[in-house]
Design goal:
This protein has 103 residues and is an alpha+beta fold. It contains three helices and five strands; from the N terminus they run H-H-E-E-E-E-E-H.
Amino acid sequence: MKFQEEIDMNLIKWLEGWYKSNCDGYWEHSYGVTIETLDNPGWKIDINLIDTELEDKVFETIQIKRTEHDWIYCEIKNNVFKGGGGPENLEEILIIFKEWASN
């Protein structure tokens, strides 16, 4: 369990760093990161890429359907990384974003 917590915290720390690196006194007033819950149940993540180093980076849409509650859908739409997934897929969505953003 401790190992898993360390992975989770490193992922959150990475996202915090990515967000902070884009805060320039202007960007954060119009753009940012939103994490919400869905009522089906699940997660919805929007990460705005406008005026970031990722704005024009190509992303291949990812769609995985394992079960009714274990699914992922990630795409870039209107310069926003949009991730959705089942109730236990939040970490996986964030990993997809991190791996794409870091490569």
